[in-house]
Amino acid sequence: MAAAALFFAVATASAQPWTRSLIEADEAGETVQRRAELDRALDELLREDDLVALARGGEALWIALPEEPWIQERMARRLVRERRFEIAVQPLRRLAGSAAPREADPELLALLAATEWELGELARAEATFRRAVAAAEDRGERRLAAAYRRQLGGLLSFAGRWPAAVEALEGLLSEEEGESDPGLLLEAARAWEGVAIGASEAGEVDAALGRARSLFEAAAAALPQNAEVHYGRARVLRRLGDEEGARSALRLYQRLYAEDQERIRATGRYAALMAAVRADLDAGRSSQALDRLRAMPQRLETLELHADVARSMGLREEAASALQRAVLLAPQRTDLMIQLNELLFEDSGGGE
């Protein structure tokens, strides 16, 4: 490390002992000892509550230790998990900007894009998602590329850019497994409904509504107990002039919605079940906790905990399945998509 860079880093971060510890550890001992010291110092840094100090420390470390990008990555991942997106975006952008286009890490680019989305920087998030898709395709990581295209479609729908969202989501539906993914069917149906709302020509409206109808019906066949699917069907059928079909779909939606509310009212029993799960986890009985979670109502809190427990036990496919169902319940929760992407990345042979 150049002396000038070290001096600047220490001067910039003079109020943060954890930053000095990282820099000192970088100069110490053998590789294994050095990495252990860096890990300990970084753990101390990530416990810092002062966001301004944390941001300044990260900048200083990038200058002092540019050959250690994993430090910035660990900072970013910890901050994203804690939903401190306004700080996480800085180390992610350092990493994304330091790599040549064909050498960029697609998983980190997707993490940056999701973080930018959380911050409301939609144009930047779109551009970064497109970079993530291209980087994954360059590496031949087909599953990752598909996951990032789906997130891109979700972002475009969120922004009300329905034709662009349709283009992204229909591309996924045309792939071999696309038509069997009920969540993707539902997302695409909503996007086509949005296209119909924005279309000016009668023929364009009818074509968009027809496609939305077929997708909602396919989603309903796969998710017959999902109230939102039937509500979407009712909206589209009414716009197509099928009043009888719309009334039937609306009645089904109302029945399923009432059943959902009844399950929610049974919170006392649910709370007791969750307490039993947490007691099992506190006592180290992960298998028993997982068995309880598998049998519990599919609520967002349950699915998030199910994914955490399954992942901790090395059951990555089960964890991914739970996260996919959680994303369907809360499509606006980009942190869930981030966790799902991390699992897909591990399965593709990536990781730290």
What does this structure look like?
By secondary structure, the chain is an all-alpha fold. It has 3 domains: 1-98, no CATH class; 176-251, Serine Threonine Protein Phosphatase 5, Tetratricopeptide repeat, CATH 1.25.40.10; 266-346, Tetratricopeptide repeat domain (Serine Threonine Protein Phosphatase 5, Tetratricopeptide repeat). It has helices at 3-12, 17-26, 31-46, 51-64, 69-81, 85-98, 106-118, 122-138, 142-158, 162-173, 182-198, 202-222, 227-239, 243-265, 267-282, 286-295, 300-312, 316-329, 334-347.
* Poorly predicted ranges: 1-30
Q: Give Rg in angstroms.
A: 24 Å
Name the overall outline: globular
Order of helices and strands: HHHHHHHHHHHHHHHHHHH
The pLDDT mean sits at 77
Ordered list of secondary-structure elements with their pairings:
Layout: H1 3-12, H2 17-26, H3 31-46, H4 51-64, H5 69-81, H6 85-98, H7 106-118, H8 122-138, H9 142-158, H10 162-173, H11 182-198, H12 202-222, H13 227-239, H14 243-265, H15 267-282, H16 286-295, H17 300-312, H18 316-329, H19 334-347
Helix pairs in contact: 1-4, 2-3, 2-4, 4-6, 5-6, 6-7, 7-8, 7-9, 7-19, 8-9, 9-10, 9-11, 9-19, 10-11, 11-12, 12-13, 13-14, 15-16, 16-17, 17-18, 18-19
